[in-house]
Amino acid sequence: MHPNMDVLRTSWTPRHRARLLTLFTTNTSNLRELNTSLNTSTQHKISVLLVDDQQLFRSGLAIIVGAQPDMRVVAQASDGTEALELIATHTPDVVLMDVQMSPMDGVEAVRRLYAQTDAALLKARPLPKVIMLTTFDWDQHAASAVRHGASGFILKDSTPEFVCESIRAVHSGSSVIAPQNLAALLDSEPVPVPEVPAAFCQLTEREKEIFATVSLGLTNQEISTKLFLSESTVKTHIGAILRKLDLRDRVQIVVYSYENKISR
Fold first, then answer.
1. Which of 176, 196, 216, 247 is placed for a possible disulfide with 252 were both Cys, Cβ 3.0 to 4.6 Å?
2. Number of domains comprising the chain
């Protein structure tokens, strides 16, 4: 390992911040470019479940999503409990979930959804991707939902086009965080952490090296070029990192790196 690649416990540098904002700048044009590059198919309509305790807001979303040629609204729910029941019934591809609802809020619904461990059931009925909807630029509750398995979060006052492009991106396997949300995350006061997590210490040196590049926002292709590895090898290492750290995707790697002040 290179001598300058020691694991440092540090706050985000301007370079980290700039690179991450480039990666997660989910403005409409960037999302549209991403979705085009992923060759999102319009032959299969993306099934969407809408979850919000405000009927007027929900109805507006239904009109917007239902107007898309590649999407269909399969159901609507007013809280987390109803959402879980409808997910089991309709098996949507993507769920738009409000953070603050009662009696069960969106964070608890996401926690229960992704806590399922029945392999046979999950194989027969894959879990949907979840996008959290929040009113605040940086919502700790929404961040918590991401840690539980949500694929990202966006503001409730996002433009209709932005919301639809976010649905397409998440359905294609990407994660979304609105730029203002990520900026707030990176600018917020870091929480002191006593030591590097034990799980992180179990990573191999190569895995730590790749963890660092992912946390800086590099794509698999960029990591492949930087570390002289094939993209398939990079994917294998990222899979091992996610498994060992009990994370679901790249967004969670970024959050994990930030919260534990881990940088290389």
1. 247
2. 2
